[in-house]
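Progress narrative, work stream C.
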Amino acid sequence: MNKNWKRLALSCLLMAGGIAPAVAQTKATLRIDAQTKHQHITGFGGFVCSPQFTYNHMSDTEIRKVWGKGSTLGCNIMRIYIPIGDGTTSGNQRAWSQSVATAKKAKQMGLIVFASPWGQPAQWKTNGTINAKNSDGTTGKLKRENWADYAKYLEDYVVYMRQNGVELDAISIQNEPDWPASYAGCLWDAGEMAEFVKTYGRQICCKIMAPETLAVSDNYANALNRTDVIDNFDIYGGHQYGGIQSAYKNLGKKGKEMWMTEYLINWNEIENNTRNYDFNKDFFNFFSAINTCMLGDFNAWVHYASKRYYAMLGDGQRGSTNGAITKRGYIMANFSRFVTGSTRVDANWSGNSLESSAYISVTGDSVMAVMANTSNDAVALTVDLPFYTQGGELYTTSQTKSLAKTLVTPEEETCRPEVTIAPRSVSTVLFVRSRDRQVSNMKGSVTRFDRINDMSTTKTTFGAAYRLSNSTRTFDHSNPLISSQTTTDRGWVALNDRYSELVLHVKSVSSTMNYSSALTTLIYVNNQGEVATHNYGDMDLSRRENFDLVFDLSSNTLPDGCQGVISITNNNWSSKLTINFGDVYFRNIGNYSAKLTGTYVADDSNVLEYTSDAACTSLDMTGVTGLPADLPWLNHSNKVVYVGAESTLDADNVIKSSVCKSLVLTADGGDFRPASAFTAEATSLMVNVEGCRLLILPFATTVPEGVTAYVMNDADQTWTSIATIPAHQPVLVEAQGEVVFHGAGEVSYAANAATGVLRGIYVQTPLYAGDYILGQQDGQWGFVRQTSATTTLKAFDAYASLNATEDFIPLTLELSTGISTPSIATSSEGAQYYDVLGRPLTSEQACIKGRLVIVRMANGATRKMMVR
């Protein structure tokens, strides 16, 4: 033990500097862009009337829970099954009569009703049965010579239903023509489906839906998009089971509506067990199925069975209550009750914690957003509206709530109301316009710090493929990201700091099949310089646009540390992903710089977002005109603003032509990270010191009067007092109360020096287990070891990286006086006096007025005292 270590017997443990509990991301902003409009939302619904569930099996009360105005679910689309006839008029009508009663009730309620055929008369099929595949494996298609018969069969059904009071809104050609079912069905390839639609589509006096395939696949969509086919059908229908590709959108551009007409998630079938519905396991995949289609420009979403344990109403099985609305029903209601008849609009997120879609009413005076929070933390959500509002409504479905309504009542009229989104929930927010916002032509853009493009490689032979930001890349089993290397022979991307996450922002993605990345694996270089891998599992890309893929690099996931990355691989063989990336970057808290252009408008969405977001530390306004004389949001903030040379704005933290007249920083003012270095005519940093603290400054300064500063020698961890503090040098300061450090000259940001013992930071940084921070134990200042990653360190602080395992390591100090064993001041009662670092004081030192001293009584008791 070093001879300068001194121990005092205080009974408490105190932490110094800026320490805060580490919490998950709990803030987010949703910006609703009403100017960028997408598809009209025709509605939502479910399937009834099939032999599997018996015809007319839902009671009038049950139907009115699911469908119609005033119903709990608010659905407006009903899909019915076309019972299979025998090909004769009388035989057909006997079969068809089974579906009349429920369909008639639906039309009386004002619902949209469409019908889907599973099978045809057996004698028209190539396999001689109504099934798509016989038990011997023989598959069945509709004989060419019976195509005209089948067209008349569908026309006759439309007429029959009309004569019985049911005017169908659409009729489908075939349910799942691409699935060789062992039950009723018929196979059609894409060319056959297109040819039938072309030839017979307009011979049926009803809107035509096609192809209702198991998957929304490109081959059927492309076949129907032929110029000689497209005018002969009205609605593109498809099922979600086999994934959703992208060619169907070309039909939407030509005026066709896109409907998802069947989907179910049977967890027992998937997991091969008999468990009951589990909200925490099952709620998000159901929400995501609907939301994926909404984001994919579908006009309608229709579930399979409406009454089943996995559906909107329970049937008494698997823990469901017969006739009662299930949690899935309430999740659907979060959409169907509020967005039917509206138009989807762009919804842009700041923060990646929620998944959502947004909508605007026909009149334009209301906006809605439906979102899911899959985390265990509540999210404080700011909703940036296209207008001002005096209030709104929040509807929450969670394990304990079912479409529970909460009024949103801001204190005053606002265009950015705040709501709390419950953990593990689906929520709908609705706001009504009170007045318009000021028209703004301002544009905003964000650039993330620590982009992978800006990192260096250890060898030039590594290549430049790692520069993913703002590029388009193919990603599958033979096309990795970052590089194709698996060793360090050609080098790696070296990290210039310790980062908690690697973030890949996806602007858009397309896939040849499924929107997922299987067995996604990071190949990296650990802190020992060895190649290591971590499998992050299957990553979901079904959001398709504007989302983040996040790789946790912290010690929670990579306990061996990460000093560099080599490659990201996956196991996709059929699903080739083409990804259009935005910024790809490393982060701890996630700071960024922003740029604004145009004429300044105080309530512009970009202005409000960047100025209120603590993560935005640097704002380029050199392209902004009409700046006011004062920027209130800049007060008491560590943000910096760059303005044009002609600007008359003269305020603290404003940089003009690379010069800042006055840079004013505070330890509580948030993170400090300018986009570029500048010269300051005057600088200051105010901190509070209770005895001592670690500190780092972005400018050089002279140690203020009444303050003592020390630097550490990394080799032996001894301390030396200094009179001036260099920029970016972590120091230990001894003082009491508020201290202001003044300086001038060059100001810049420096990354955490990962090679030093003391590591200073200018932005909030998560601490890892094994890190050391300054604290007190039994009155002795020293380094306290962190046992878990539960805290973050605030700006202008520092932590220590020590090759040690002790819970507490006392400070070692080389006294500036050069006295190694000073005489200890002792009172007549035997009390001894020490400074706040636990160093013994001489009689002269102990009598300095205003000095805080620690007194150890003769009996061993200790107390703090101010000399007066």
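Work stream C, second folded protein:
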Amino acid sequence: MAFKCAPIAITCSLFIILATGCHSERANHPHKPESRDIELLRDTWGVPHIFAKTDAGAMYGLGYATAEDRAFQMYYNLRIIQGRLAELVGDVKIGVSERFPQGRDSALQSDIKMRTIGYYRAAEQVAANLDGETLALLQAYSDGVNDYIRNHPNDLLYLFKKLDLEPEPWTPAACIVSWWRLALFFSGDGLREIPAYYEIKAGQRQVRTFEPDDAVGEFRGRPVRDDASVIQRQDVTDEWVRKVMDFAVQHNLTRKVDSGPPLRLPPAPRFSHAWVVGKDKTTNHSAVLVSDPQTLVRNPSLFCEFHVSGKTFNARGVGVPGSPIILIGFSQSVAWGMTALGADQADLFVLKTDPNHPDQYLFDGRWRDMEVRNETIKIKNGQERIITIRQTHLGPVVTPLAMGVRPGDEVALKRIPICEPDRDTFEGALAMTRAKDVYEFQRAAGSWRFPSANCVFGDSKGNIGYKTILALPIRSTHALLDARAAHEGWSSENDWQGIAPHELLPQVINPKNGWLVTANHRPIASFYPIPMGISTGSLGDSDRSWRLKERVLARESFNPQDVLDIHYDTIGPIKRDLVRLGYHLRDVLQYPLEEETLKALEYLEEWRAAGYKSEMAVKGTEIMNLMPMAFRQQFEAAVVYGGGISGLCNMLQTINARIEANPNAVLTEPEAEYVDLILRAAWRYGKSNYGDDPSKWHGLAQARLLETKLPYFSTLDGFESLDEEKDLTLPRLSCIEGGTIFSQQAQSYTQYVPINNADKAMALLPIGQSEHPDSPYRLSGYDLWSGGKLRPAPLSKERVEALTTSRKSL
């Protein structure tokens, strides 16, 4: 299978034309280090270990190994974000139902969105502007990909031929945009900001404004649990707080809070939990870290695992096929884990346009020309579609994509990462792998751009740290809200003021309690004045952060195994306490519960006796897995405590404290009504899913688990299996409850690192390393996943050699 040049012509820059690979001497005749410089070892589970004398050699080997494992996955996802999916699969629909006969989305609609926003065009611009070393390393990775594909045409996955997917030369831009492809799913898109803008301008929403140093006023009347935050005031110095406050005052960052009904936000990312215990809390005075990224396990795996050792780094972990970035990993000096932060990194700008000035927009008193071009979208077995793309200096015009834009209005999208053409997250990720301790790591992480994340880390000396890592836009002083409301795009006064200095973002090293947990919950207490527009966990705890804290606070000290044991915890505190309150209402308060609620409580007696563990072997787990946790404004209790998971945690924690102080404490009527309703719903869901005979529910649930499909190459945006014959089914997992720490169905990777001895690290990548159905590594993690086990993940070459099953010199 020969390389074929991409049909998307995007820029007149000679550099970018060369970088795309069309007529590229480098792409067709890549320079690579001599064969003796690069070794590719594979261990028992197929994890590639690349050892090279140079950093470029290590990147070349990584690109080669990744193409060997996941070439189709790389190119399939690349085509999606390039806006070229329909040319592979036709205009397939997703989310088809009676209500949505045309589906909620389609390949063509996806292509239109990707082309309109222009992710691939932006990635090419970034590649053209990178510094020499960064570009050279991405090119070395690309050369490795290209060499493997060129030299192994008969070893490529059969889907290349089935879908007529001709692999084009991999490029640095492809590396960059492959990372963005994953990152987009853990960030807001900015396309839902118009309704709030219209309502505020019309006086239908009221906005309260508070000065940066008014930490109390912003939350007056708002249900915020400041004590749930990762960083407390005692954890940071007076000097740092002063610098942050000076910056906020200098940029007039008044806090603007919507006092009306809550805005309808996109689904918040629930991505991961991670924890690290420092030297003051461990028996051997080392730091120990565990990281569990949580997104549904896929076939093949969403992530790829690798170990790459060059001249200036020796690190391993997981990343995205097609990109050399290590998302979660460790070196001989530092280990790190991440969870989604969900900060607002995107904005809509309302443009001033006029029919008398077609393809122009008014800005700072003069009409500016939009950049206008047409692009052709090919559709397999269909008629091609020509779309017009318009670009402003603020960003692409996205009127057809944005929600609720009134006829005649036009909007442009400004967002990280496409508005930063001269930098990329790879620069920060590379520096993180080279860091020698938590202080170097903290500085290196300042170059991370996208997506926004909570990062916990520790070093071999026992120090630990936490940092929010992102490019955080500083909005205009004229912004209507702190975040998630469109801006007026006809004056430079309304544009972003810039990006917040990374040293002023929430961060801490060696907090006073000696440990750190992150699980998509509130990052810092309200003394922090810089708005971050966080969409997830902004009011306090998540269910998983709550449980992590319970586990960590239960011990005065830990040995490394104690830290790892937390990973296997199967108690979801929200569902546990809702059931506890049901029994409190029934047995202590004799509250008049619904008949179906009483049946649910009787059925759950065994579950309670088993310690509220959401394990499939325990009767009752099957209906607790179905129990909804909706906590929206239609519930009076949610108005009091705040909506969403953090609001529900707030309510339960408040009631728990009340009962601890008085075992006969009463619940308010809204609290009791909510508990009654949710337990009744659990019983009803049991009947609707498993039938009218509760004696059969447990067995049916266990059987159905084993029938649950893992579609072959399904995507995060909902595109389904590419070959149903290669679909898999779930193994006999013990815990699938998403509100628990163990949560195996979403165990996309697990990493455990006693950082003073990285060779004792352990990890697991379900379902395995390879996309090839006949590869021994396709299911190399499947049985371990089913059994709840991890396997060795050493770092030194000596320890890797002991596990090596194949060796290749490149």
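The radius of gyration is 26 Å. No further action is required on this item.
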